[in-house]
Specification:
The complex is a heterotrimer of chains A (about 270), B (about 325) and C (about 475). Chain A has 6 helices and 13 strands. Chain A is α/β, with parallel strands linked by helices and about 270 residues long. Chain A folds into 2 domains: about 220 residues, 3-Layer(aba) Sandwich (Rossmann fold); about 30 residues, no CATH class. Chain A is globular and about 75 Å long. Chain A starts with a strand and ends with a helix. Chain B folds into 2 domains: about 170 residues, Rossmann fold (3-Layer(aba) Sandwich); about 120 residues, TPP-binding domain (Rossmann fold). Chain B contains 9 helices and 15 strands. Helices cover about 35% and strands about 20% of the residues of chain C. The chains are: A alpha/beta (about 270), B alpha/beta (about 325), C alpha+beta (about 475). Chains in contact: A-B, A-C, B-C. At the A-B interface, helix 4, strand 7, strand 8, strand 9 and strand 12 of A face helix 4, strand 5, strand 6, strand 7 and strand 10 of B. Strand 13 of chain A pairs parallel with strand 15 of chain B, so a sheet runs across the interface.
Chain lengths: ~270, ~325, ~475
């Protein structure tokens, strides 16, 4: 079984201060000075793939794991880590285009890669990125490839060379399905949030292997149908408004009437 | 604008989805020239009349399918919507709705946006707002390919119960034999884990060092019960064994995201605040006006927590 | 005859009241260890003898009464405030110890901006004190990474040092006067004077005693004027640690005092600065203070660095961003436990200090030996973060996967062998095995080598102040002694 994990690297936005959120006239925000790390759902997807592979080997199956990202050179450190963890091949599709809200284009690039590099049995990726939050890419890849798609995946287990068991969250519970590949799986709130760490020895032995770089320019952009018009800060400071009153009872009355009554009703 | 609501039976939370979409429609499509109808999917085991009660529009199309399965629903939509001219499809919030919206837009060559907090209909475009950049920012988007396929973010507009009304059934389809799930060899559904934990709590009252001793902690816990809130404590209280460790909120305990959080007698040290910072609304009660929690709450009361909360209980019961 | 646990509890309850004597099992487990044993603790393994109780004390008199009781009955006492220690100093090495927790003694007693002193009880958190001072335009200048958690008692007891020490000094340079309680129940106060030569400086019996001699109940520290608007940030990438040490030395011997002067090797640098340093060492400086001073310091550093071609300047904004996120974010500690349990990967450290002439040699031999002799390493690096006229420190950082071993075996398989290599090579070369974390309980086996003939003085102090062997036994001085 060939599993292709598609991932993205993003800046650590928790390190942004309020003053850093400056939107320029092209609706870009300079986040280049921030440390990069894996998008959390993609991180789960990578770790799930590794665990799947270990479980498969216990069943005398030999799945192959490969990793793919569409990014500039800032993803290099992560690609080396994935090589050290034995993803092979590890591919970067070079693109300097603004793909934040271009799910159709991203999906087109990914599905073209799948078509051009057979056989691929499972495309595994996180449900959404931390920047665009589009939550569309895996679904569009499935539509373009005409493959089935399962979202909110939290666990995958091997069955045999062509089948796997997929557990996912649905709106009212958990669904466990044994399915026939090929399929696209979008990972949600999996129990494993952290990618394992390769040893120094593995980094030296496998991490130095050159990863492939393909060029995004070779792919056609598709019409998105959705255009970004504006970006504004959503985060609000809490106001720390003091409740006035001469006695505790008065303060409680004001607190209840102005602040809590409606809110508690809604619960 | 001609819009269609998609409601999916075959699931136990259809009531809350219906109420949410009802509120969304009222808030975003209430005024103006909009004609809406509903497509209701249901499975044979369900009582369709019960489900009809949840339909917010007058006209409704009923589609019976074997069970909920995305590929099947998409195929069913393709069948029942073949000759239709629709500007906007509104899918339910939640996992199913957002998945279907995207895939339906692809199949109809429209455009989609999910987890939307609000929409505005204009001449030949739909303007929609949603959170982006890990929820730090609001993005405003223009959708320009019809049909627009939208799924709202959960409780974006709250929820409004569906009023009793007359329905006109404009179509009925039995697609129980439609099956696009041959790739599924076996399937098992289980109820979600409902063990109560502070992390899932919607209303928490947290007591801090200011409680002073085990007895006061027990009293505050009772008070929390009277308010209808879950009870948590900060580290000093747990380390002093005034309350069990599983009540601990903060770095070494539960990281919560309630709708309402009341913090009593705690200074709001960073180690604790990390456990409540995602709360929707924080009320702090402390005798020290300079305690850090006072600045990082939405409202603050400078006083002894006991009389304030005792009075709050009285007011709530009244 | 040793008291039974029951009698110990009765005695304690008579002194502080039932409410303040904590016997809950989970609390006792957490109170038997500190961050040194966090791998096994996160797995629910607690191997140290459980304390008889944790006692919350609210006044110096209570501390004195509890200490006297413990001393008379020869019960081991572990003094504690913030519980952020990393070297086992808070481990309860003996049966039925009493952990005396001073974190409720949290009054800020006085802030004197004329004499530039702040007085606070031992349970005051450094973050709270510093935030309060900053509102008024002052700072303690003390900024260890544990700042959000650490409290004054422990900070003084461990001879802690902060990230701005190159300007402000370590805690020993900041302490003015003190109050401490000794095992016999005696309360001693050392007054606040700028300097005196009235015999040896007895404050240094207390500063760094790690709870092995006395219990610190009140601290007065210097305060400094705070000019964050004048901060100047400088960062460079370079090729070798050797060059980096030379640059640090040039800055120090020419009399400049940036608050931050740090040199990261390639691996440690990659962990923090991969967004601007690929396969390079990193040098970071921050100059602060009154504007003429900050600007002159920054200009001088730029000139010194410019003499080395291999140094390339980094955008100051990147350094400023790093500077704003120096300390342990309490939210990260929530993540730490989960991450460790999921990945079985953990980070530990050993910090040493040495003169300029030997520091690079120590760095190279330790890195080579650890890399060759220790399995399952995932990161091995180091940085220098506290420089002096005559030398600097080295903070070795190592991450490893805990493979094929039970949680309780992690220390003996990985952390202790690594520490052994670093400590032995450092002492052999003539450096010090403990720069600022304290000896705790796990470097005690080398304490005689560390001191040589001066061990005599250390031992006498212990004999004099703790003749009944009940103050945090196993700390600094090995149990066997």
């Amino acid at each position: 079984m060939n599993i292709l994990v598609c991932f993205t690297v993003m800046p650590e936005l928790e390190l942004m201060l309020d003053d850093d959120w400056v939107v320029d006239k092209n609706l870009h925000i300079d986040v280049g000075f921030l440390k990069q790390s894996l998008n959390c759902f993609d991180e789960s997807a990578l770790e799930l793939a590794l665990r799947f592979s270990e479980a498969a080997q216990n069943l005398h199956l030999s799945p192959k794991l490969s990793a793919l990202t569409i990014a500039g050179p800032e993803a290099t450190a992560m690609l080396k880590t994935l090589s050290a963890l034995r993803f092979d091949p590890v591919v970067r599709i070079d693109s300097e285009k603004d793909l934040r809200f271009q799910s159709m284009s991203i999906a087109a690039i990914l599905s073209q890669y799948v078509v051009d590099h057979p056989p691929q049995d499972v495309v595994l990726t996180g449900i959404q990125s931390g920047i665009g939050e589009n939550a569309k890419t895996p679904l569009l890849v499935a539509e373009m490839l005409e493959w089935p798609c399962i979202t909110q995946v939290i666990e995958i287990e091997p069955v045999d060379e062509t089948e796997l068991t997929v557990t996912c969250q649905v709106d009212n519970g958990l669904l466990q399905q044994t399915i026939q590949a090929p399929c696209v799986l979008a990972v949600g709130n999996a129990a494993y949030s952290y990618l394992r760490v390769p040893t120094l020895k593995d980094r030296i032995q496998f991490g130095k292997k050159a990863h492939e770089i393909l060029y995004g320019g070779d792919f056609d952009a598709l019409e998105e149908g959705v255009e970004l018009m504006d970006l504004n800060l959503a985060k609000q400071e809490r106001s720390g408004t003091l409740i006035e009153g001469a006695t505790p009872k008065e303060k409680a009355a004001t607190l209840y009437a102005s602040c809590l009554k409606e809110r508690l009703k809604k619960l | 604008m001609i819009f269609k609501l998609i409601l999916i039976g075959c699931s136990t939370d259809i009531t809350s989805r219906a109420e949410e979409i009802n509120a969304f429609v009222a808030e975003n499509l209430g005024s103006g020239d909009h004609v809406g109808s509903t497509i209701l999917f249901y499975s044979p085991e369900e009582d369709r009349n019960e489900l009809l009660r949840l339909v917010p529009t007058e006209s409704v199309k009923l589609v019976c399918i074997a069970r909920y399965q995305p590929e099947t629903i998409l195929e069913a939509l393709q069948t029942v919507e073949k000759e239709e001219e629709t500007d906007l499809y509104l899918f339910p919030s939640g996992y199913a709705g957002s998945e279907l919206a995207v895939r339906w837009a692809f199949r109809t060559k429209g455009s989609s946006l999910v987890h939307v907090s609000g929409i505005e209909c204009r001449q030949n475009q739909l303007i929609a707002k949603k959170k982006v950049y890990s929820d730090y920012l609001f993005g405003t988007f223009r959708l320009n390919k019809k049909p627009y396929c939208i799924s709202p973010v959960r409780a974006s507009a709250g929820s409004v119960p569906v009023q009793m009304r007359r329905h006109v059934i404009v179509g009925e389809h039995d697609l129980t034999l439609l099956c696009k799930d041959q790739f599924i060899k076996a399937s098992r559904w289980s109820e979600a884990d409902t063990t109560a934990s502070l992390e899932k709590s919607k209303f928490i009252l947290i007591g801090g060092r200011g409680m002073g001793n085990e007895k006061n902690t027990a009293n505050l816990r009772e008070l929390a019960g009277s308010l209808g809130a879950d009870f948590g404590v900060t580290r000093p209280a747990a380390m002093n064994a005034w309350a069990p460790m599983d009540k601990l909120v903060g770095v070494s305990g539960a990281v919560t995201k309630p709708e309402v959080c009341i913090v009593a007698g705690a200074s709001g040290a960073p180690a604790f605040y990390a456990g409540i910072e995602k709360s929707k609304y924080i009320v702090a009660i402390n005798t020290d006006s300079k305690a850090p929690i006072m600045r990082s709450s939405d409202v603050a009361v400078v006083d002894d927590y006991k009389p304030v909360l005792d009075e709050l209980v009285k007011l709530m019961k009244a | 005859m040793a008291l039974t646990r029951q009698h110990i509890l009765e005695g304690l309850r008579k002194i502080v009241g039932e409410e303040q004597v904590v016997v809950d099992e989970k609390v006792l487990q957490e109170s038997s260890v500190d961050r040194f044993r966090r791998f096994e603790a996160y797995h629910g393994v607690f191997r140290m003898p459980l304390p008889a109780a944790v006692v919350n004390v609210s006044t110096t008199e209570e501390v004195a009464a509890v200490m006297k009781f413990a001393n008379e009955n020869r019960i081991n006492v572990v003094p504690r405030t913030g519980h952020s220690a990393t070297e086992g100093g808070l481990e309860t090495a003996l049966e039925n110890s009493i952990v005396i927790d001073g974190s409720t003694m949290n009054k800020i007693i006085n802030i004197d901006t004329y004499n530039m002193q702040a007085t606070a009880q031992c349970g005051v958190s450094l973050q709270r004190l510093d935030d309060l001072l900053k509102e008024q335009g002052y700072t303690t200048g003390h900024s260890p990474q544990s700042k959000p958690l650490a409290q004054l008692g422990g900070l003084v007891a461990t001879r802690s040092i902060g990230q701005f020490s190159t300007l402000y000094g370590g805690i020993e340079d900041m302490v003015v006067g003190l109050e401490a309680v000794f095992p016999d129940g005696g309360i001693t106060r050392i007054k606040n004077v700028p300097r005196r030569a009235a015999g040896p400086d007895i404050r240094h019996v207390i500063i760094g005693n790690e709870g092995a001699l006395c219990y610190i109940t009140e601290v007065t520290v210097k305060i400094f004027k705070y000019f964050p608007e004048n901060n100047r940030f400088l960062g460079y990438t370079l090729d070798t640690m050797k060059t980096g040490f030379e640059i640090l030395r040039e800055v120090m011997v020419n009399g400049y005092r940036p608050s931050v002067a740090r040199l990261y090797d390639v691996e440690d640098g990659a962990y923090h600065f991969s967004h601007f340093a690929q396969d390079k060492c990193v040098l970071i400086f921050v100059a602060e203070g009154a504007k003429p001073l900050a600007d002159a310091t920054a200009a001088a550093i730029e000139e010194i660095v410019s003499r080395y071609d291999e140094c390339k300047k980094v955008d100051a904004r990147l350094i400023k961003r790093w500077f704003e996120h120096l300390n342990w974010d309490p939210a990260d500690l929530v993540e730490e436990k989960r991450e460790i349990l999921e990945t079985k990967n953990i980070c530990n450290t050993t910090e040493i200090a040495a003169n300029w002439s030997i520091i690079n040699e120590i760095y190279e031999v330790c890195m080579r030996r650890v890399r060759n002799e220790i399995p399952d390493l995932t990161l091995l690096g180091g940085h220098s973060s506290h420089s002096y006229l005559n030398g600097t420190n080295l903070y070795f950082v190592y991450f490893y996967n805990v493979v094929d071993c039970k949680p309780e075996e992690e220390l003996s398989k990985y952390h202790l062998p690594i520490k052994k290599i670093i400590v032995e090579e450092t002492i052999k070369a003539g450096g010090s095995m403990c720069h600022h974390h304290g000896v705790g309980k796990h470097r005690t086996q080398w304490i005689e080598k560390e001191y040589g003939s001066s061990y005599y003085i250390l031992k006498k102090l212990k004999e004099a102040f703790d003749p009944n062997h009940m103050m945090n036994m196993g700390t600094i001085i090995p149990l066997e002694d």
